[in-house]
Prior knowledge:
Elements: E1 6-12, H1 19-27, E2 34-40, H2 47-57, E3 61-65, H3 72-80, E4 89-92, E5 98-99, H4 103-113, E6 117-126, E7 132-134, E8 144-146, H5 147-155, E9 169-171, H6 172-176, H7 189-197, E10 202-213, H8 219-227, H9 230-245, H10 248-269, H11 276-288, H12 295-326
Parallel strand pairs: 1-2, 1-4, 2-3, 6-10
Antiparallel strand pairs: 4-9, 5-10, 6-7, 6-9, 8-10
Amino acid sequence: MPEPLVSVVTPVYNGERFLRACVESVLAQTYSRWNYTIVNNRSDDGTQKIAEEYAGRDPRIRVQTNEKFVRAIENYNIAVRQTTADAKYTKVVAADDQLFPECLARMVDLAERHPNVGIVGAYGLAASPVPKVLWQGFPFPDEFMRGPEACRSMLLAGPYVFGTPTSLLFDANLIRSRHTFFNESNLQADVEACLEFLEHRDFGFVHQVLTVQGVRGDSLSSFSERFGTDLPWILQSLRTYGPKYCEPEELEKRVAQHLEGYYWYLGRQVYNRRGPEFWKFHRDKLAAAGHPFDRELVAWRAIGCALDVLFNLKRSAGLVRRWLQKR
């Protein structure tokens, strides 16, 4: 039997600084049966030229240029829709990421040995600023987990295994099951897709570092970091998917735990002089998740943060004083 075909896709906007390394990592795969589509989102740098250069050298590579500029997650949806009709799997590679040579081979091998696996993940490597292995896997040598159990573990703050789009291999039938695969209103759309599609499928995990994550410098990453978007998203996920995967008691406990941490975060932001846009964002998101914004609780948490800083300063001063006295 021939190897199953993998459709590899890369959505890119102004990626001339890193696109070559990304494409070269796909060309270096030990697994040979793939096609590759680069979706150029109206870049105004050298992205188009680089992509066309590679397409001209390898018939497995093609370039699609959007008619108009679209938002990042919409471009991801355009990219995964390039999965060809004869492909069995879809592999996303962000333009600033790379694959290790055995990535496709290892992921496809696991998926083929476990037919009910719908999504395969693996460890990743953050190359900068300090190299480190990303995410946590299953206990070795377990290769897969029932989808609902993987989702339950994630929602209850267990080991994080879903990674990013680059670290995942999708069954192409999941991609084809709906026109808009990633929720374009959610910055964590890749994790939401896992929660959405693993209800009846298993999640596989390769115990190997298979991808390299580049330094995120795009506007989505910047916005997410500045606004702490993961906090309201987790709350909304608990509301949407918690009843499906968790017991009522454990879900209630997890929501309370998350809200506690959420308000401590908001309390710290009082001292960072966040503007009206920041507070409106969290007020709206909390309300949407069914938890109206508690201004008084933010104030109490801010006071608690200040007292904690003062206590630690006093404790540190005492340690220094005792150290000096001993000398």
